[in-house]
């Protein structure tokens, strides 16, 4: 899924659930952002290597696969990102205390606030 709405910023959404991805995409488009959605880890890693985005929303579990390689790649490239998860990520936060983790479901207002913050640090 690719959608272009403006040049105010590009946000990569890495989420394996198409319904959740569409909701996230809709919320971000309301902020006049270009949204790139990847439903798989392989596609996400390719996008991350391109480095052509300003922030990332990352689900840590993609079709039963850990998104840890994507997380490490973003950290190595200093890409602003937030982890969005429906499962406990306390072990991940213990390992990487600087992580911002949002638990699903995330309100539109909270998501917009976090993305605005990420874009300010891009």
UniProtKB/TrEMBL annotation:
Q: Extract the PANTHER family matched here.
A: PROTEIN-GLUTAMATE METHYLESTERASE_PROTEIN-GLUTAMINE GLUTAMINASE 1, STRESS RESPONSE REGULATOR PROTEIN 1
As given in the record, the signal peptide range reads none
**What is the recorded name of this protein?**
Response regulator
Q: Which organism is it from?
A: Rhodanobacter hydrolyticus
What start-end ranges are recorded for coiled-coil regions in this protein?
Answer: none
The record's annotation in InterPro entries points to:
Bact_response_regulator, CheY-like_superfamily, Sig_transdc_resp-reg_receiver
Q: What residue stretches are annotated with the Response regulatory domain?
A: 10-119
Which positions carry 4-aspartylphosphate?
59
Give the superkingdom in one word.
Bacteria
Its lineage reads:
Bacteria, Pseudomonadati, Pseudomonadota, Gammaproteobacteria, Lysobacterales
Q: Which keywords are on file for this protein?
A: Phosphoprotein
């Amino acid at each position: 899924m690719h959608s272009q709405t403006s040049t105010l910023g590009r946000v990569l959404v890495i989420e394996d659930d198409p319904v959740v991805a569409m909701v996230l995409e809709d919320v971000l488009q309301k902020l006049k952002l270009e949204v790139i959605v990847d439903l798989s880890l392989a596609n996400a890693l390719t996008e991350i290597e391109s480095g052509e985005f300003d922030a990332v929303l990352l689900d840590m579990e993609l079709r039963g696969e850990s998104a840890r390689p994507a997380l490490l790649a973003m950290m190595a490239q200093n890409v602003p990102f937030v982890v969005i998860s429906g499962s406990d990520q306390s072990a991940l936060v213990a390992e990487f205390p600087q992580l911002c983790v949002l638990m699903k479901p995330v309100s539109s207002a909270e998501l917009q606030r976090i993305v605005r913050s990420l874009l300010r640090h891009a």
